[in-house]
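tool=predict chain=A
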Amino acid sequence: MNRQPDASDSFQTAKRVLKETFGYDDFRSHQAEIVKAVLASENCQVIMPTGMGKSLCFQVPAIVLAQQHRVADQQLSDSTGHRPGMTLVLSPLIALMKDQVDALVAKGVRATFVNSSLKRHERLERYQQIADGMFDIVYVAPERFRKPDFCEIMTKRSVLLLAIDEAHCISEWGHDFRPDYTRVDEIREELGNPTTIALTATATPAVQKDIVKQLGLADDEMRLFHAGIDRPNLSLNVKHVWDDDEKLTAIIDIRQRIAGSSIVYFTLIRKLREFSDKLWAENIPHLVYHGDLDRVRRRELQESFMTEPGHLVLATNAFGMGVDKEDIRFVMHCDLPNSLESYYQEIGRAGRDGKDSECVLLYDQRDLATQMEFMKWSNPDAEFYHRVFDFLKNEIEQVNAFGMDWLRERILHKQKHDRRLETVLSMLFRWGVIEGSTSPDMDLAVVEELPPQLCDAATIDAKLKRDQTKLLTMVQYVNHEGDRKAFIHDYFGLGYEG
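tool=predict ok
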């Protein structure tokens, strides 16, 4: 009779995988405890600073569990109905999936992803490969569970571990709420309630509690591993400025002082382009990355930044998720971020190699008005949701024929800088109300009714108040005269010794 591996056997296998597959001699920080817990079938919530190795906390157990499951398969010779084991990773971004899968495949790990970047024939081929047990780790967005064909494929596999990356997306109290993440409890049930690990770099106590609740678990059914948020090698500074000329001077000064890979974040694409022109006039080379660029160009720019040394990139917050570059020497915010969570995630991209790096926030009081305008655009009222939805439902042929500018003109009339329409379309996509594309050509279809969450005044008002509170905290941070790291630790409910 064959002996099943015990916890000690499993952890020794995990250490071997860490060395042979990932090239590390030992786990660091809380990684060992987390890996042991996952291999012992404990549900875990992991909060760990960016760059501290969150992904290994599920990737190593995923490989170990797959190996053990294959051994069990071999022992069950001639069995019927046995489903190959795998780990399913819920991840919010296409770029993040591809980067992690590419890195795993390069190390010989049987990993893949399924997302909207695949053509239909590629997706169907990938589905068949998953059903045949060819992959041990599969990355998908939670929205994929809206697709009946994908759900059917999942019935042919045994999900040994469910990993939820960027788990703050689960909570409406988080800074990047994704409606489909609120279905994770249903997804877990569909998958047979596998061991679950939820990971994020940022979560306030309220978000931590909400993550557990949204997973359908009780507090005592999920262990919390909090590795803290301190990054001792990062220096945090705020520089008060009065106009764009002072901002430009600050960018030039730090770039002349620090020649390594660097990111300067902007809120507005228009402002980013203006600063790009000014930097070129000063003969300062740089890359430019924002959401208006097509996907191919964005990918090229990201590849250049990742593989070539010393680039300065001017970017909106569309740049960063999936950028796992160790030697970023400074991160500058040229505009006020909308929340401390967003700010902390973005500065977390600096200094992942442990060497000293600078994080500078340039604060012009006028930027507060810009963020307040953004807040208005990102919180349309119920009447506006109804107006856009009714127009799409009744005029969809014209919308697809005449395009986005025509739709904007009909909905917003002369308010060409108003971005509420983009917010509504984004939320309709997220809630599964519409499908298709808005670029390069309009190809939309209304497939569901408007959900009550998008047209309930109380819900919308509560969201607006949360956003206002987050922005107020950000202003308090820039005006804080004490230790800024202590301020951030206090916000996230942690002590700080300095």
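The mean pLDDT is 88. The CA atoms of residues 379 and 464 lie 6 Å apart.
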